[in-house]
């Protein structure tokens, strides 16, 4: 054990090192250091003495007494140095020895000084301008800079975090809050609950804790920000008014989509509004699938405590609607809850859409004619083409027109809208699902790949063109941070999320196999 004391500051005192703390021999080396341009003073002889601690009959220690020279001694030393003489060192053993100081007290004093130094270093840097403390969060604009007091930072480090939850090794200012780096202890979910409880006991609802993954090194980090930075952004136009306006336009496009006579000349629609009533059955079926989709989101959100905004239905003259944009109004607790909310809508929509699709293939048209389509139309979807081939068999031949129940087309449109929303990109349902399954970094990569593929597809398909524009400007993210992003969702919910993504692929990918008559040869 080495103790180094820096001159010029004079040191006077005793050091008690308990022998019970060391199981082997140790070396006590008392050295005085001096800086450039400052002459160190010579100390009197140090006195080491084995003593017994009066508080315990078992504790023994080494007492170290160091006395500093008085001013007269300093003058004598200087004079001796000039004459080249060596000053006489007086024996200090006869001097009275002050009572020893316990090493625990000395360590506490050192820790206090270290903590004050850390806070002082942090104090100048944690005054930061107000802004978004985390990706995807749009806080209110505050008039004054946000500042977390240095006393609060010390309480966070020493009393809120700890060895049993998250051992802090360093901290940095982070846009209105503080980012703590360190080592996560135990399961992330349990540690988050413990830290959150301590944070609330100390500060109430003043601060919000996030347990995230650092994208630089993929290690856990904790972020504490004032809740005033997390207030939802207000809009100039009331949300319900904007959503209602988009909803009315979507009703019109759904009706228009199911009237083939108006598809070739959209401008004639206003002169033939009476024809829109012919598209009412198809619009109702597609709207029913969309409504069940949104209902699934809201039921799952209610179960998990997630607050959703009013859905904005996006009109489309090609397929009637692109679905709805639904904002998450509060902070989602974890990835499993996000997965439940994001996957519930597509699962409900796919379930109803597949049921209606199967009924369309099984039930004959009500008028006996139905809708006459070319068999090649089923090449546009692997799912629809596979089901058609399975149920229609040899009736489905290349270049042959067939009559089907219009319910097939209406249900197929609803499945396509579900599939488009299941694309793993941005803040779409599929983007939120990929985030919940594999984390933020993987979600960003899926978003980039999906937008690139849609961009290439838009050269051949106008639906892909409009959809990539919509994603890029409205839905590309980033997804707002979750309270705790480290814990993976349960296996059951992972299977549900993967199923949603696969169904989306099956609906969007083409059916590659030709529709030919199967011949059975008997030997």
UniProtKB/TrEMBL annotation:
What keywords would UniProt list here?
Chloroplast, Hydrolase, Membrane, Metalloprotease, Plastid, Protease, Transit peptide, Transmembrane, Transmembrane helix
Query: Mostly located where?
Result: plastid
Q: Which residues form the Peptidase M50 domain?
A: 283-445
Localization of this protein: Plastid, Chloroplast membrane
Q: List every stretch annotated Disordered.
A: 59-140
Q: Does the keyword Hydrolase apply?
A: yes
Q: Which residues cross the membrane?
A: 341-363, 446-473, 493-513
User: Tell me, what is an example of a GO biological process annotation in this record?
Assistant: proteolysis
An example molecular function term from Gene Ontology annotations? metallopeptidase activity
CDD domains given for it? Answer: S2P-M50_like_2
Where in the sequence does UniProt note compositional bias of the Basic and acidic residues kind? 73-91
Name the protein family.
Belongs to the peptidase M50B family.
- Name of the protein in question: Putative zinc metalloprotease EGY2, chloroplastic isoform A
